[in-house]
Amino acid sequence: MARLRRITHALVEDLDLVIYSVNEMGMEVAERGNTYYAAPEWESFQAHLGAFFLHGQQRGVFGIEMPASWWSDFYLSCLFGAGWAVATGRLSQASVVRAVLSSFLDGARSGSRVQSP
Question: Is residue 21 in some structural domain?
Answer without folding.
Answer: yes
